[in-house]
Design brief:
Elements: H1 2-18, E1 21-26, E2 34-41, E3 44-48, E4 51-54, E5 62-67, E6 70-74, E7 79-83, E8 86-90, E9 96-103, E10 108-112, E11 114-119, E12 126-133, H2 134-146, H3 152-168, E13 180-181, H4 196-204, E14 208-211, E15 222-223, H5 234-237, E16 259-265, H6 266-277, H7 284-290, E17 302-304, E18 309-311, H8 312-319, E19 326-331, E20 334-340, E21 348-349, H9 350-358, H10 363-370, E22 375-378, H11 382-387
Parallel strand pairs: 1-13, 15-21
Antiparallel strand pairs: 1-12, 2-5, 2-9, 3-4, 3-8, 5-6, 6-7, 8-11, 9-10, 11-12, 14-22, 16-20, 17-18, 19-20
Helix pairs in contact: 2-3, 2-4, 3-4, 3-10
Length: 388
């Protein structure tokens, strides 16, 4: 068992224990052609093409632009030079900085530690990589994925799940020169956090991850609100697991995203079913089924009758619905989707978990409510086994 434990978690353990920081591409979804960099706390050394350009204890405000295949670095007073790459390296452990996109115009984003600045291969936009302490990154992800103003116990659980997800996907972008991106493709990472409870939740669970019965890092899926019942992984991603099973959940039923409604023209619905799915809407019985669909006994997988099955996840994607947990009813010349929940429905229901935490359930209780047959592992403890 010891050998199996070490071999399966070896890569994740090495990533966590031997590397204190992670490379995250930031502002991934924006085509940044000009931006402003300035420290918030601490001071920064500025390197251009590996050479120290500025070593000053005076906080600097810099604008960076693209000129051909080079990066132009300047202050408000002067142009410093042109470079292929730049590094802004914090001189203190609590260094933090802000970035504001100028072209295109964007909001201020704040981050911690260092930033490495190059151009993409086509030289048309900046490639910004935040080299940041892993636990600071986790804290930023927790805030980006779940917001503030909830309980410490919830933040502990969300920290564990975000850390587990990170280590399971830590080399996703390695061939592109960084490890993870800041978009939902990896995990949302919109800024540093200054929230004391989030920081404490991360610190109190440092090194903890979740594994299944075979000691593999789990797919730490989560979503906003399940509408009263989560979904098994195979019903959304065609990936069966022992731990992502459907769970009845009453904790989320009165929360913000528990219910929703969407109205579309009846003719649009009929045309959609007929043209895309060859649904026989000319049959009056079939049309009645198509305009009076419900899920009274829990979540269904298909919009169905005896002859035709349309995956609900396809309908959700095509109409940009909040979830697959909906009924369909006709009112006059309109179709009304009466929906429950928000998100794919697999794994942790965030609003349900937040409610459980408020009701004094521990983060371990909440974990075991939403995930079946899983175990918490402290990665740092594996150093003991490796030394034997």
């Amino acid at each position: 068992m010891r050998k199996l434990f070490i071999s399966i978690l070896f890569i994740a353990t090495i990533a966590y224990s031997s590397a204190s920081s992670i490379s995250v591409r930031i502002l991934t979804t924006k085509v940044i052609q000009s931006f402003i960099f300035s420290p918030i706390t601490g001071t920064y050394d500025v390197y251009g093409d590996g050479v120290l350009l500025l070593n000053s204890d005076t906080p600097g405000i810099f604008q960076l632009n693209i000129d051909g295949d080079s990066i132009v670095l300047k202050t408000f007073e002067k142009t410093i030079g042109k470079y292929a790459s730049l590094k802004m390296l914090s001189k203190q452990t609590d260094g933090a900085f802000k970035i504001k996109s100028v072209v295109p115009e964007g909001k201020v984003r704040t981050y911690e530690d260092d930033v490495i600045i190059t151009l993409t291969s086509d030289k048309k936009q900046f490639l910004l990589i935040n080299k940041v302490d892993i636990e600071k990154y986790i804290a930023g992800v927790v805030e980006s994925e779940s917001g503030t103003h909830t309980s410490l116990e919830y933040y502990k659980l969300q920290s564990i799940l975000c850390r587990t997800y990170l280590l399971a996907h830590i080399s996703r972008h390695i061939l592109e020169g960084f490890q993870v991106c800041d978009d939902v493709h990896c995990q949302a990472y919109l800024s540093r956090t200054t929230d004391a409870d989030i920081k404490k939740g991360v610190w109190d669970t440092k090194g903890l991850v979740v594994v299944d019965n075979d000691l593999n890092l789990i797919t730490a899926a989560f979503h906003s609100n399940c509408g009263g019942q989560t979904v098994a992984s195979q019903d959304v991603w065609a990936m069966s697991t022992t731990y992502l099973k459907s769970v009845k959940d009453t904790f989320c039923l009165k929360q913000t995203h528990a219910n929703w409604k969407r109205t579309i023209p009846l003719e649009d619905w009929k045309a959609y079913l007929q043209l895309k799915h060859k649904y026989p809407i000319d049959d009056s019985l079939k049309l009645n089924d198509a305009t009076s669909f419900a899920q009274p006994n829990g979540r269904a997988i298909f919009f169905t009758d005896n002859d035709l099955k349309i995956p609900l996840k396809i309908i959700r994607a095509d109409f940009q619905l909040k979830s697959t947990y909906f009924s369909v009813e006709q009112k006059g010349e309109s179709i009304i989707f009466n929906g429950r929940g928000y998100g794919h429905g697999v794994g942790l229901c965030q609003e349900g978990a937040m409610r459980m935490a408020i009701l004094n359930y521990s983060y371990k209780d909440i974990l075991n409510f939403y995930y079946r047959d899983v175990h918490l592992v402290d990665l740092s403890a594996l150093n003991y086994f490796r030394q034997e």
